[in-house]
């Protein structure tokens, strides 16, 4: 992973670093946690699935899970770290105290669908155990340093999932 080019801007590019500084701020979290995912979904639809705004700085996956309580499909746009054929996603919830709903959905129903790089395919989610998480965490924070801020601000152990093609 490291500084590999994922979208239009590498994670170590000055523009990406500026976005990372802003994204880690509490003020951005209040607004961005609602605005960023909604904007990504609208842009994704309007461009026929060709891109999202977040992809300018980070690789993005569109994850469709099964609701833990409702049993209905739930779709969310997530930053992702591709490693081989697998994708890693972090349940940061922008540093909020509660885990994101999509992570609870994956715990209840690990079979999901992901759209990544204009391909849609089934995946199976695996919640990383502490040793697995410790191994991959430096790569995740190299890609998106605000994950450390989100972890300390939330006061919880952030869930990290590996999404493997089913």
Give an overview of the whole structure.
With 166 residues, the protein is of the alpha+beta class. Helix content is 37%, strand content 27%. It contains 5 helices and 7 strands, in the order ααββββαββααβ. The N terminus is likely disordered.
The share of residues in extended strands comes to 25-35%
DSSP helix fraction: 25-40%
Return the string of H and E elements: HHEEEEHEEHHE
- The CATH architecture can be named as Roll
Q: What's this, in brief?
A:
The chain has 166 residues and is α+β, with helices and mostly antiparallel strands. It has helices spanning 14-23, 26-46, 101-108, 130-143, 146-154; strands spanning 60-66, 73-79, 81-83, 86-91, 111-116, 119-127, 159-165. It has one domain (14-165): Electron Transport, Fmn-binding Protein, Chain A (Pnp Oxidase, Chain A, Roll).
Would you spell out the secondary-structure blueprint of this structure?
Blueprint lengths: L13 H10 L2 H21 L13 E7 L6 E7 L1 E3 L2 E6 L9 H8 L2 E6 L2 E9 L2 H14 L2 H9 L4 E7 L1
Antiparallel strand pairs: 1-2, 1-5, 3-4, 4-7, 5-6, 6-7
């Amino acid at each position: 992973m490291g500084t590999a080019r994922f979208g239009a801007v590498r994670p170590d590019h000055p523009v990406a670093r500026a976005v990372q500084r802003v994204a880690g701020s509490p003020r951005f979290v209040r607004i961005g946690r609602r605005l960023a995912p909604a904007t990504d979904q609208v842009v994704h639809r309007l461009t026929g699935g060709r891109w999202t705004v977040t992809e300018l700085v980070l690789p993005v996956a569109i994850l469709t899970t099964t609701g833990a309580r409702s049993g209905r499909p739930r779709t969310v746009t997530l930053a992702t770290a591709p490693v081989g054929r697998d994708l890693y996603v972090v349940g940061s919830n922008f540093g909020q105290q509660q885990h994101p709903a999509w992570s609870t959905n994956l715990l209840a129903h690990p079979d999901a669908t992901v759209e990544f790089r204009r391909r849609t395919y089934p995946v199976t989610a695996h919640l990383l155990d502490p040793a697995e998480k410790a191994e991959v965490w430096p790569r995740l924070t190299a890609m998106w340093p605000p994950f450390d801020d989100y972890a300390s601000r939330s006061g919880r152990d952030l869930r990290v999932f590996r999404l493997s093609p089913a």
